[in-house]
Sequence to fold (260 residues):
Amino acid sequence: MQMSRPLRALPDTAVAWLVMRPQRRPRLDRVPRTAAFHTHRSAAAVWVDRQFHLIEAAAPWLERVGVAVEDGCWLSRDSHGWVVSHGDRWHISCTRTVTAAYGASGDAASQVRELSVAVGAAGWACYGDRIPDPVARLAELVLEPFQQRGTGHATAGWRPTGSAEPPPGWRPPAPPLAAKPPLSLIIHAERALPASPGLAPNLPPPLRGRQRLGPPAATPFYQPVELSEEDTATLVKRASAIAHHVFVVSVRISYLERSR
Fold:
């Protein structure tokens, strides 16, 4: 008996459908319920808190005003410009960012250098092939604009040094998730009042503009996990009212990365 043409074509059609069908979008709201999530997030929270403990112990003149926490998971997808292929993978990334605001008085230049040394002892610095002193470079990036305009900031990367170790079980993410630094620290310095009108910044300092209008809502692409009531802008304003200058230290860690 001769097989009909539609029946002969069925296997090829099925294979084509399997190849071309879109990847099912992961349920981001299910991620925080998993055991792996709780294990990695707990380790990340302890590790971040330890970074602040090390920094504050090495710079006891810092007067902490408060801490802002933003912890959540994001869903993204491979893309090729404006084109999205049915076979492109989905990526889940969970990050925790803790920002502490400090008030300080005294010689700001010396304190910027001391703060850089303190974070350097914990493994943070501006690393690079042509940077002979990564800790001094971090201080330089903050101090020069601070002295010129009254506000300065720099981003540092992390490397194990001395007793500094990554969180237990933590591994750097693989590409393409590795394109964004999984561990980063930002130091921001700002004068409560400019030394002279000429030093006043033309635009509001970056951290003052980061004021939330309300808690972000969960979406299929964003799942909030922990969010402090006070944001960074509120903490900076409070510190400015009681100190000559403000230091802000923000530590960010990507603690869970998945691709499917």
Remarks:
- The beta strands are 63-77, 90-104, 124-125, 151-158, 183-191, 222-227, 245-259.
- Helices lie at 5-20, 35-58, 108-121, 134-149, 232-240.
- DSSP finds five helices and seven strands in the chain.
